[in-house]
Amino acid sequence: MRCDQAGDERAPVRDDGRRGFLKCAAGIAGVAAATGLGKEASAAPADRPVGGFRNNAGLLPDRVPFHGRHQAGIVTPMQLFAGFVGFDVLVDNREGLTDLFQKLTTRARVLAAGVKPQDEQTASEQPTPDSLTITLGVGASLFDDRFGLSGHKPRHLKAMPAFPDDRLEPSRCHGDLSLQICAQHPDAIVHVLRDLARETEGLLRPRWRADAFLNPSRPSGSPRTFVGFKDGIVNPDTASAREMNRLLWVTPPCGEPDWALGGSYQVLRLIRFHIEKWDKVPVARQEKIFGRRKASGAPLGSRNETDPPRYRDDPHGRTIPLDAHIRLANPRTEKTDDSRFLRRSYNYDRGFDRSGRMDLGLVFCGYQQDPERQFATVQRRLRHEPLSKFITPLGGGYFFILPGVRDTDDWFGSQLLKKV
């Protein structure tokens, strides 16, 4: 069923949850080199600057409101740093799950308001909100027989399948929960994880983690990935309620459970770049693979990165090849318009692998109304594209981002667990 506007397998459970969580939260790999590169909140809209930081989308507010119909961290302008973690839930009954979600809500509300983390209580500096957002999602494995939720699973939620060009590693895939933490400084990610480790001791175990960051735009416009091309140039208009209700948010015509209204599907993909191989490719060939100029970001045959590619004037692909990444991903036809989704991706740097090759890549993050209609459809169009020789998806998962926490009496997943 199309939703128009109108509005896995789990890892074995062990008793070392806290030890594993703290080990997972101990540090951020590779981000140091990139440094530099609600009731009470309802009166401060997320898009209104309140002090804050300048980023690629303009002035990012110091404090991003926690309460609302939708969770923060989706249409919020991108912060400089992000952490993505997949968790397995260790509790074995609905009461324990309710307690877990309430604890996560309480701490997320406190931290997003700018309260100093416990591990910094003795520091003399004042606490800063750091434009922090904490975004919680649920995986398909949460809807098994542990909590009696199987009849309430979102319609399109399942374990992320392996696509033809993937090489997925089970230890870096899926999870009962997904946590996205975004902020303007990398230490904020660690503070949040340390805080949650203390508050949820014995309730959660980390399954995988990816720390990531934005590269500068250089010299302007969209930021660049480590393959040197600008990323995220074309996205749906987040200021358009019509567009968001058609492509992003779960609305009544979607046929989803009532508790899911206001939520969104999240697709995470951990994608490694084979950078040494890519660097040997002449720039002219790289540009044909992407369909854009490397320096300006403009579509081939155009001058500016925001210029729309002229596919109708190039039906045989003489300017932009028919198998160019941008042409396959978004053909810009009426038929393919419903497969667009919101991209919110970050770069990662994990140093060197055992063979001495650089471990660089992208934490691809996409938000949408239906991952089959949107992400999976795009992925099938990209099957065996020329770029696939230089990248390998290794992990990630499909998750459903819970509706927002409405006010101080509400909590993550309240409508789901109260209806069971």
From TrEMBL:
Keywords: Heme, Iron, Metal-binding, Oxidoreductase, Peroxidase, Signal. It comes from the Bacteria. Residues 71-213 form the Dyp-type peroxidase N-terminal domain. Signal peptide: none annotated. Residues 292-317 are annotated as: Disordered. Coiled coil: none annotated. PROSITE patterns: DYP_PEROXIDASE, TAT. Its cofactor is heme b. InterPro entries: Dimeric_a/b-barrel, Dyp_perox_C, Dyp_perox_N, Dyp_peroxidase, TAT_signal. Residues 304-317 have a biased composition (Basic and acidic residues). GO terms for molecular function: peroxidase activity. Residues 223-405 form the Dyp-type peroxidase C-terminal domain. Belongs to the DyP-type peroxidase family. This is Dyp-type peroxidase. It comes from Streptomyces decoyicus.
